[in-house]
Predict the 3D structure of the following.
Amino acid sequence: MATNYPILRLKRGKEESLDRFHPWVFSGALTAMPSDIDEGDLVRIVASDGRTIGVGHFQIGSIAVRMLAFDDIEIGAGFYRDCLTQAWLLRQRLGLTRPDNTAFRLVHGEGDFLPGLVVDVYGDTAVVQAHSPGMHFAREVIARQLVELTAGGVPLGVKNVYYKSETTLPYKAHLDPVNDYLIGHSDENIATENGLRFNIDWLRGQKTGFFVDQRDNRALLEHYSRGARVLNMFCYTGGFSVYAMRGGAELVHSVDSSSKAVALTDANIALNFPGDTRHKSFAEDAFKFLERMEKSQYDLIVLDPPAFAKHRSALRNALRGYQKLNAAAFDKIAPGGVLFTFSCSQAVSREQFRLAVFSAAAQSGRKVRILHQLTQPADHPINIYHPEGEYLKGLILYVE
């Protein structure tokens, strides 16, 4: 039976990407927009020949609809429960549900067939972010499903749901952002990742309070840290620094322009290595720090900057930024050093990032070899029909 959602019709020939299950409908693909549709409404997408393609959330902007289902089905509590169940089963399959690992991403938007929704789990607290008006309006329903979620006989174990949309809702939606607990309340903000403990500031921190997407890459850095002098640029919560300490680094220096980030890094070092004098932090601009530091001062350097390009209009300047940053690191790293370098800009492709780093290496004149090519972890899955979901790119480089 057909749903009674408002109908949006596609222009002739505009159904091709949707027939390949791409989850976005662009505004230019639609015929005249009905006047009775509001931000976040559920709509039914119909091809020019009259057949129903599926249902999704409507919003104002270039992406007009984010598809939830390629079928004419009702979207309600049962739909969210089924999607969350599948997401939870996957995380169990990935082996993330261990006593020594209580931090992971449960829902990664399009990668878990819930476009516009992000859910990170820290112990018994789930932090929810909406990137679309539709998910914003569904937040209460989603929160209830999270605390009741069980899959394969294993409960998720979430007791508290914190909703954080202050910086994620599209500005054109004119919605009041909400940062508050939907269910429960927690004063316990320490989560465990691969046996290491971290303070998670989901109230005031960036994103959901912690960058869980670098978990696997941090573990790899631990492998390269023994006896090394490590520099962690753009350290934020100090994740790479903590892993380097456990890996047996000779010294670890953490740099961030934010004094709050540096304080959080220091707190995480103290949480895992109280009284250890190998670590020192600096609240300073990264480029200025690299400029003043001595050559060969560090054997291992981590460059994990915030997104240089959040939109394609900033792409050219972003690539220049990546080239400049990596060139400085190539110039200063010790012979036989290892460079971990990343881009989290979705607008920057893997090839573009690699070319920027290649240009920086050529500028330095040093011999550089690629040891690993990195990406986001498996709890940030990429929908095979939505390649735009690949955002994290990284290289581990050996510099002679």
